[in-house]
Amino acid sequence: MGQGLSCGTSDDHGLFSAVQCGDVETVKTLLERNSSLVHRSRVYDRQSALHIAAANGQVEVVSMLIDQSVNPDLLNRYKQTPLMLAAMHGKLSCVQKLIEAGANILMFDSLNGRTCLHYAAYYGHSDCLKEILSAARTSHVASSWGYARFVNVKDGKGATPLHLAARQRRPECVHILLDNGALVYASTGEYGFPGSSPLHLAARAGSLDCIRELLAWGADRSHRDDSGRIPFTVALRYKHGACAVLLNPSSAEPLVWPSSLKFVSELNEEAKSLLERTLMEANKERENNILKGTAYSPINSDDGMDDNISEVSDTEVCCICIDQLCTIQVQECGHQMCAHCILALCCHSKPNTTTTSPTEPLCPFCRSRIVQLQVIKFEKDEDTSHDIYSSKIRKSRRSRNLSEGSSSFKSLSAVRSFGKMTGRGSGRIAAENEHIDKSQ
Length: 440
Ligand SMILES: [Zn+2]
Ligand SMILES: [Zn+2]
Known about the structure:
The protein is an all-alpha fold.
């Protein structure tokens, strides 16, 4: 039996309430008077002072207890560590402190067999999630267990952190996990038995944002769970109509990040986030087309956009689509194009294409291998540059819509010559044609 179980003394009680409200002085005094108090735990949940401090974000108390050489991996009644509680309650500074003190990120509780990563994902604390992931990269876990294995660690029911984030409608966590190597097709089924994919759980929760993220990472709409249902059926069952429309295997495929993650992960942060935004934007545009005419037609369409027809100089316009502004520059050759067109080179619209070998993206102008991409700066950082991009890009789109005939002809010929240049018809060219169809 544990030390503190039978004695609900007033000192214990005083300590726990002082810890909870972060009263460092009282905690200090009580511990000086009776140093064995640090090892006491609360009677009903076996919560130690460190657990209580971590759950309540009392980082000073956490530091003090750790300085008193309290084991950072103490367990409560459910075998939860202080780190799990800090991750559950989104107490970032405590998460940091505990990790710094050597808390083990790979502990499993006895409730559902979950780790601190599961907890951060489940409760949607993306900052804690990032912290744990970055700790995992450098800790012994990466060398002994493997980083990818940690990101995809399963709980007692076979759910990965990605499953939990999708089920709890946490798109930001879904994104971070995918970006860190979470498997989009992970199944809750063990040993090859069928189970639910994260897409099933997002469909069940009715989270459009999670569904968008998962689809953009190549989630399979035809994956069947242990009852033989595809995510589409699940969305219908739970009456999430708009989700169901997107999940319908017969509706248009969204754009998907290249399976050769290598290429994307080598991108510099700025170029990567621009491309990510562009991809999501392009997918939303498709989505709007899919939803058009259904009961789920988007309310916030682009109709409210400003009507200014911009005079974009020719030098700024992408030579491939003659539509968008150049936002991306290829290294080393320095050729410029828009984010949409670079996505055309790297993205495919369906993961199960017959060409399994990921082709290295080449510059469409000089056919040199694309080593790195840079975001082109417009007017030097006066404003937040993103706003300048997006407003400029929108304006240029608008001008396309207004001057239909000529511009669609131009882009049609551009697409043709582009196809010739690259020597292969990528899936995204078809997507470009879709734009053209629309404006005709
Ligand atoms: Zn372009
Ligand atoms: Zn080039």
